């Protein structure tokens, strides 16, 4: 049984249609990456699935229920999203930021319960950010901040986590650190991870399932071996790519490429 899918989903900004009657299934307890050129609808799709923005037609279905009709707090217990450029209020400590993940579970005056504090400590520990608990978020490096935001998403105790370009602005080491953390969460905690990535080799290395978008439509969806091919990359990115095999993972990798030019 597929827990999360879209059915003929169309999303528009003003009069411009960004995503066109898109139907896609998200594999449960797997890592899914969404790739495609700038402006093709990747981030828009994530926002619509998580109800940050509304859609024009079609539906998003989670556990047999239409997401658009789901109670906000109940939905926040099932799905968490880390936006592309998250911003926190100036002066917040790491512990305070992570505690915001417990909002869907708070009642009355919003005081944190013993269970809330236990989950916060667990999220800090899993992401390796416990030592920063009392430090201002603004004082951390980019990689440390990204791990803290992931800790906040984990504190929501959702089974599905969406991330919009989680490696943006990070150096190579910190990119790998974040992606390995997400992989560990998937393997150890059975979290379903859905993320937008620009780096094709990172997408191939870490994903179980890849969705390639172009102009709001799916060009190809499947395993990395099915999607990271010369034909698909030519169609999606207008490039002539040389595809090899990663000697460490045996997964396909883009070795080099040229931009295809029209006649």
Automatic annotation (TrEMBL):
Residues 4-240 form the ABC transporter domain. The keyword RNA-binding does not apply. The keyword Cell inner membrane does not apply. It is found in: Cell membrane. Keywords: ATP-binding, Cell membrane, Ion transport, Iron, Iron transport, Membrane, Nucleotide-binding, Transport. It is a peripheral membrane protein. SUPFAM superfamilies: P-loop containing nucleoside triphosphate hydrolases (SSF52540). GO terms for cellular component: plasma membrane. GO terms for molecular function: ATP binding; ATP hydrolysis activity. Coiled coil: none annotated. It comes from the Bacteria. One of its GO terms (biological process) is iron ion transport. InterPro entries: AAA+_ATPase, ABC_transporter-like_ATP-bd, ABC_transporter-like_CS, P-loop_NTPase, Siderophore_ABC-ATPase. This is ABC transporter ATP-binding protein.
